[in-house]
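Hello support,

Our group uses your service weekly, and this is the first time we've seen a run hang past the timeout. The protein is Mutator family transposase. I'm not sure whether the cause is the sequence or the server load. Input pasted verbatim:
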Amino acid sequence: MAQYQITLDEALLHQLFIGQARDEGVAKLLETVLNQVLKAQATDQLEAEPYERTQTRQGQRNGSYARGLTTRVGKLQLEVPRFRDGQFSTELFARYQRSEQALVTSLMEMVVNGVSTRKVQRITEELCGTTFSKSTVSELCKQLDPLVESWRTRSLEEKSYPFVIVDAMYVKVRENGRVRSRGVLTGYGINEHGNREVLGISIDDTESEASWSAFFEGLKQRGLHGVDLVISDTHGGLVQAIKHHFQGATWQRCQTHFTRNILDVTPKALQSEIKAALRSIFEAQNLESARRLLEETQEMYQEKAPKAMETLERGFDDAAAVLAYPEEYRVRIRTSNGMERVNREIRRRESVIQIFPNRESVIRLIGAVLMELEELWSNKRFMDMTRYHAWQKERAKNQK
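Update from on-call engineer: The timeout came from a worker crash unrelated to the input. Re-ran successfully.
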């Protein structure tokens, strides 16, 4: 099999991932790739590049003719090579018509999941009758780097982000001949208009106070401001970094993680009862009601589940911080479950890679996935912030 060099224009990639005409971007991507495959197949059959003189040359080019190809993402205009003596042949059209949707998906994977070079080689060989070298595919994927880097370092100054949710996940990366576990730090914000936006992504050796501090410092340098509440789990380094970089903001301990922490030290026979009691506490109408329910729960289970009650007492204030906010917002900001759903989406794509070849490939793949998610979020407002802004003004007035 011949190995064909495929190149993509940065503007085309920009249109594909963050342009408004998404279907048009996919169509242009297909048109570019398929036309290059046709040219490469002509070179293969003639055993010579255009204007190249060799002893093994099998014939001469004679221009090309246009052929339209209708797809679900639009009509493609392909340039099919002509030969002076003989007939140019290709299986591309027949293969494409049999598996149109598969090819669209595969070419998207070539760009977004391109770090899995062996997978790309296999798919493209099956669908296009051609194979791509590992170096060619790697270079193709690297064309995404400037686009992802531009997105993840963009300015955050235009809007304020009252609510910020952060979390970390771990991936395997091959470094210096060894496979190592590395922390990927991510976070999204709910801006002043009620829309979700991915704020950033970073990779570090581990999830430590230093790594989170560097992550937050980077966000602030890009203009992150107006942070009122930060939601996360209770990783020690993360909490300390939040307190240092967002002084004046409130930290909300994820209630889902907190509930798990309590149930982990609860006798099995009492877990369902205590879980129900915790739900009542966290869903209380206000902080005073929550404290009353807390005292009742402690009185009931202090002797039966002392470790669970100690954990509850120690973490109550941080887990109940959300009760100070208007009731209609609490369900959205009391846990970091939204960030965990983002991580699950990343895992779904990342699972085909298993072990990343380097840190750059981690940023390339996960960054592209996050860009895609953010584009989906932009079509729907996550919450109405009208009540929040009125509440903030009233709170500021009362503090004077």
